[in-house]
Amino acid sequence: xxxxxxxxxxxxxxxxxxxxxxxxxxxxxxxxxxxxxxxxxxxxxxxxxxxxxxxxxxxxxxxxxxxxxxxxxxxxxxxxxxxxxxxxxxxxxxxxxxxxxxxxxxxxxxxxxxxxxxxxxxxxxxxxxxxxx
Length: 133
Description:
By secondary structure, the chain is mostly helical. Helix content is 81%, strand content 0%. The chain is elongated, with a radius of gyration of 16 Å.
């Protein structure tokens, strides 16, 4: 991993920790207090955490020069697919295979980090190409 890529990934992971804290709080509260399914609670938390992450990634991680219309539409398309991966894995692992919901969530989060970073770096926040001369 190049020096720049490495530092960018570390910033992405730090930002992601805030969104993950939101998601995990909603997961815990949804399952333990509200009695909703782990997949639904995780899915709701994922959406709420993604809003926090968009703002921080736009300004801090990627220092994007794109307008919010383009960046947000790409970012939330990317995260929409990530939401399907996360929620689908939670449904499969917890509700079909009987895994403990925290173990399933940690696995889903790990897969999501790779998906979200790659898509954010190389698509959603990718800098505009410099004009050729």
